[in-house]
Design a protein that fits this description.
Layout lengths: L11 H19 L10 E4 L7 E3 L15 E3 L15 H13 L5 E5 L2 H7 L10 H7 L2 E4 L11 H8 L4 E4 L3 E6 L2 H22 L9 H13 L5 H16 L6
Parallel strand pairs: 5-6
Antiparallel strand pairs: 1-2, 1-4, 2-3, 4-7, 6-7
Helix pairs in contact: 2-5, 3-6, 4-6
Length: 251
Amino acid sequence: MNIPSLKDKVSPEEWKLRVDLAACYRLVAAYGWSDLVFTHISARIPGPEHQFLINPYGLMFDEITASSLVKVDQQCNKLIDSPFPVNPAGFVIHSAVHEVRADAGCVLHTHTRAGVAVSAQQCGVLPISQQSTFVLGSLAYHTYEGVAFREDEKPRLQADLGQANFLMLRNHGLLTVGRTIADAFLSMYTFESTCQIQIGAQAGGALTTVDPRIVQGVAEAMRVQTGGLGGAFVWPALIRKLERTDPSYRT
């Protein structure tokens, strides 16, 4: 697909954000978390204008490039001409988070089988793995209201999310909020692993749960933590992985 490059038409800061977001889409596809064209990852463009980047509706995640990402404002107006539309449901969910969370540099949403399966369980996330303790330290739930294209759902989603960084959308899927694109991706890796482990464990015998004091300790550590090492170590390794396979995300 021949999409003209925007590298010389946007600021260096926006271009770097575009490259990282395109990389995130490719990684989500590589790890099998995509749902054809029906989920979204958005990244806030720094500044007071509340602008963000989101995927062009109709492209598979492994097709997305830095230049194909659509730049929109809080009313879903395209700020750079694009032949692609923006999915209204994707815009409602992501704009709701960006609107109230100044720390939401990136919002990542998936519909994986494991994520949807756990979201349909009354118990939600169980404290049965090390991965789950990190999720439970900052987890919220939002009740399913149908396909999320109505503006009136936004206040309820915002209230349910609060300051959490992991949101389980009941009967729907998973959502993570990150200060950076790397943070949101690594949080989703943990969230998705938590759900896969839970579904697998439930297929076996009786479950052993983690001591609540340990879960609480992880939650407290997450509240005081100022930044993790994932962005410094894991994200560059993931980028090297992409470079070895298909560097076209950078175009």
